Amino acid sequence: MTAAKQGLPSAACGGSPALSLAGIGMGANLGPKAATLLAAWQELGAIPAIQPLALSSPWRSRPLDMQSKGEFVNAVALIGSGLNPSELLQLLLTLEARHGRRRDPKAPGHQDRPLDLDLLFFGGLCRQTATLTLPHPRLAERLFVLAPLAEILPDWQHPLLRQSARELLELLEGAGQQVQKDRWPDPVP
Length: 189
Known about the structure:
This protein is α+β, with helices and mostly antiparallel strands. The protein has four helices and eight strands.
């Protein structure tokens, strides 16, 4: 069942509900990848200001824009957030660090990681600061983000491109990127 049919908070601009719908891209290419993503999902759900709403299937992909032999496992999580976007971003960075992610600003390009959490969108907010751009600037270019997003929220509208997750996915299919839908090792809590 898609998130839209489950009666989730609206992603459209407008009023300020108690919780804002946020999309989080999850990925890992080191360690027990799927287990790490599930652990991060559970940790998010334990935070009082976060309401877990939906988690996509895991999707396997090859590294994009980086040199690595490690295949990625990716997913998208939908949450209701009582935090503002900057607070949520800081929380995601803290969760990454807790799972062993070490960011090296001096290292060129992307590095292998045990956990990567990206704030993809926050309601219909469009924002660009030194630390956060919403929606995520490469969301529409990444099959490993669009496939899981379209799985759980196909009608989500990109606030700048005015296209749905499903439409953006169709534009990227056949463009050289490959993803493979997988299954979680155990029932998702």
